[in-house]
């Protein structure tokens, strides 16, 4: 399934991993929000943790062209240390609805969220980023 990616940390335009992994390999990037999640500060990168409620994470919906999609998906899975079914994964890639800022439409997208063990640790002793925007962290 070729869905856009919702990126909220180092893969956002202007950030280091965007330049390394996405620059020149995408058709568009537009602002969006993931509702029902809290953003936590990690060691140099953030984690979105799914939480029922009003929490939001700010980021960008990035669309890749079909001809390079499979390769890009595999590279992003490696970057995010996501292996389906592996309990040691730091992130899980999940399909979620993301609100596109330009028109308020809900768009299905791939989102890398904190894997269950990581999410439990962050809820217990992590530092939430107020406002859900990693670029605005203090």
From TrEMBL:
<protein>
    <recommendedName>
        <fullName>Gamma-glutamylcyclotransferase AIG2-like domain-containing protein</fullName>
    </recommendedName>
</protein>
<dbReference type="InterPro" id="IPR013024">
    <property type="entry name" value="GGCT-like"/>
</dbReference>
<dbReference type="Pfam" id="PF06094">
    <property type="entry name" value="GGACT"/>
</dbReference>
<dbReference type="InterPro" id="IPR009288">
    <property type="entry name" value="AIG2-like_dom"/>
</dbReference>
<feature type="domain" description="Gamma-glutamylcyclotransferase AIG2-like">
    <location>
        <begin position="5"/>
        <end position="135"/>
    </location>
</feature>
<dbReference type="InterPro" id="IPR036568">
    <property type="entry name" value="GGCT-like_sf"/>
</dbReference>
């Amino acid at each position: 399934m070729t869905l856009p990616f919702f990126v909220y940390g180092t893969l956002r335009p202007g950030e280091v991993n965007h330049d390394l992994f996405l620059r020149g390999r995408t058709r568009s990037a537009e602002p969006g929000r993931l509702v029902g999640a809290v953003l936590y500060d990690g060691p140099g990168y953030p984690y979105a943790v799914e939480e029922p409620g009003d929490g939001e994470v700010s980021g960008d919906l990035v669309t890749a062209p079909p001809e390079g999609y499979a390769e890009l998906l595999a590279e992003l899975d490696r970057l995010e240390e996501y292996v389906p079914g592996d309990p040691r994964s730091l992130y899980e890639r999940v399909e979620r609805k993301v609100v596109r800022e330009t028109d308020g439409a809900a768009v299905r997208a791939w989102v890398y969220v904190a894997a269950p063990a990581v999410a439990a640790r962050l809820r217990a002793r992590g530092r939430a980023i107020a406002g859900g925007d990693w670029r605005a962290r203090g």
